[in-house]
Amino acid sequence: MTTQLAHGVDELIESLDRAVRAGDVDQVTRSVKDTLERLLTSGALELPAEMTAPRPERYARRLLHESDTLGYSVLVMTWGPGQGTPLHDHAGMWCVEGVHSGNIDVTQYELLDERDGRYRFRQQGTIEANVGNAGALIPPFEYHTIKNASPTTKAVTVHVYAGEMTSCTIFVPGDDGWYRREERQLSYCD
Ligand SMILES: [Fe+2]
To answer: How many other CB atoms sit within 10 Å of the CB of residue 125?
Structure first.
């Protein structure tokens, strides 16, 4: 069992190392997306139970792997029923996110305007992502929310970032339809 777990993670990392060397950002994200979809759809990536435990107060963010040589990082996020994120960016990094278990709703936003430190966005629709689905965000198109809409079932997602994301910007909606920005420090739990 332990060997099987290690094998799944090892295969993920070997495939991601190849994918991240693929070339420009479009090729890299396409290749990372293919890798995640292949391993998540086949069930080859088994995650240790302690990596996928939900937390009551907010979604759980855990580091699975960080590449010393290529710089990318792989996170596992666990979303309890109803848990989600505010509207946020990805600190200018490309990112590919895939569903390991459960379902998540991903809502993309387009930045329309910035004035005096306030921002206006247009919602571009929501995709329900199921097990094996993966999607890429490439700056400047990097604004979204994620939510586990299920009232009963947790969801687990795997995120690959170009680097280590230690902070991002979240956007807080006001009554007038404009958002104000807040810097958010990000940390790993456990
Ligand atoms: Fe995100």
So the answer is: 8
- pTM exceeds 0.85, yes or no: yes
**Is residue 99 within a helix (H) or strand (E), and if so which, with residue range?**
strand 95-101
Predicted local confidence at residue 6, as pLDDT: 52
d(CA 112, CA 60): 31
Quick check: 119 and 171 in contact, CB under 8 A? yes
Output the CA 137–ligand 1 centroid distance in Å: 8
Q: What is the mean pLDDT of each run of 10 residues along the chain (190 residues)?
A: 62 96 95 97 93 96 96 98 96 96 96 95 96 94 95 98 96 96 92
**Confidence at residue 89, expressed as pLDDT on a 0 to 100 scale:** 95
* Residue 1 burial (10 A CB sphere; 0-12, 13-18, 19+): exposed
pLDDT at 113: 96
Distance 143 CA to ligand 1 centre (A): 7
Of the candidates 131, 160, 126, 166, which has an alpha carbon nearest to the alpha carbon of residue 146? 126
Q: Which helix (H) or strand (E) covers residue 39, if one does?
A: helix 25-42
Shortest CA distance to 40 belongs to which of 100, 114, 126?
100
Interval between CA 150 and ligand 1 midpoint (Å): 19
Structure tokens at 53: 């435990």
